[in-house]
Amino acid sequence: MNARFCAMARLIYFLTALLVLISHTAFSAGGGSDSHARSSVQARLLLDQEYFDVLREGMEGAQTEIVICTYLFKTLEGANGYPERILKSLSAAVKRGVRVRAVMELSQESGDLIKTNAETAKRLEKAGVKICHDPPGKVTHTKLVVIDRRHLFLGSHNLTQSALKYNHEASVWIESPALAKEALDYLDSICGGKTR
To answer: CB-side exposure of 118: number of CA atoms within 13 Å?
Structure first.
């Protein structure tokens, strides 16, 4: 199989799994007052650069909390690229009184990814973002953002200039307090409860 076919197969698998998850949350068995909450799940596919625009808008509108989990967050001090703008949005959120947490991949033994994430982590900490590193021996490949415990962004986008501006990428925005809670519980399990 060629690389393009494999990438497309992974995207189809991811989107199918996501639709099953949304369907399960929105239409699971039960009745009464629960049915309105379940039916209020909203979702939107974010392709390519659209993800950056919607994510940044969500971060700039955050009122209480932003929790991000990223495999790769590549910022360049002094640059004006998309990752820099994300970092600035997170810094501005902290200044507004929003709690901002980041779960970052740092468990691989060596390589540019670890160096890049470590440099960005230092810049985030300086801006007031609380950092959690995944435990040694387990790679955190998750790309997930939870805003105000109701908005989720998940998919293929790393926080790099390539992923946010140039690559073909697919992610999803979901509005669901129930799924947001599940996502935050998952991130807490990675960081031993340090994301809240």
So the answer is: 10
